[in-house]
Write a structure and sequence with these properties.
By secondary structure, the protein is an alpha/beta fold. The chain contains three helices and seven strands, in the order ββαβββαβαβ. The chain has two domains: 45 residues; 73 residues, Nucleotidyltransferase, domain 5, CATH 3.30.420. It has a five-stranded mixed β-sheet with strand order 5-4-3-6-7, with helices on one face. A two-stranded antiparallel ribbon has the order 1-2. It is elongated, with a radius of gyration of 27 Å.
């Protein structure tokens, strides 16, 4: 911002003028925009938004109309080696049971979406679904990938 005096006019009073240079202001906003874009993509990939940031090869299947709201669904990923991931964190069976119990106490209509790798044994997926049922969660769905 530039501040100065106008040349004295006939009356002898010099007026004060002020200018705001917009270029540095737009530079700052563009840098902030880039920072927010980069951090938001990192947050989404790390699983803070409720989605797990792990790669799961879903089995092929026909899509169905399961509609889940972001606020009342819980994604549970079962990896090929049998580990269970919720929100980007690997959980033990006891931790998963307590997570299901907390979700059931918060909202009994929570939908559990099981994202099981194609190589996972059927029994592991059924065990996860039974843990959810034991906690009082009745809305269960299995994520699949549409065939090409």
């Amino acid at each position: 911002m530039a501040v100065g005096r106008l040349p004295e006019e006939e009356s002898g009073d010099g007026g004060v003028f002020a200018e705001i240079n917009i270029t540095p202001l737009t530079d700052i906003f563009l840098v902030l925009l880039i920072i927010f874009m980069v951090t938001s993509s990192v947050i989404v990939q790390s699983g803070v938004s409720g989605r797990s940031g792990v790669h799961v090869t879903l089995p092929k299947g026909s899509p169905s109309d399961v509609q889940t709201a972001a606020s009342n669904s819980l994604a549970v990923a079962v990896l090929a080696d049998g580990r269970i991931v919720v929100g980007g964190k690997v959980l033990s069976d006891d931790d998963l049971k307590s997570r299901f119990a907390a979700a059931a106490s918060h909202d009994p209509e929570t939908t559990i979406v099981v994202q099981a790798d194609a190589g996972v044994a059927h029994g592991k997926v059924v065990a996860v679904m039974e843990m959810a049922r034991a906690a009082g969660l009745e809305r269960l769905a299995i994520a699949t990938q549409a065939p090409q």
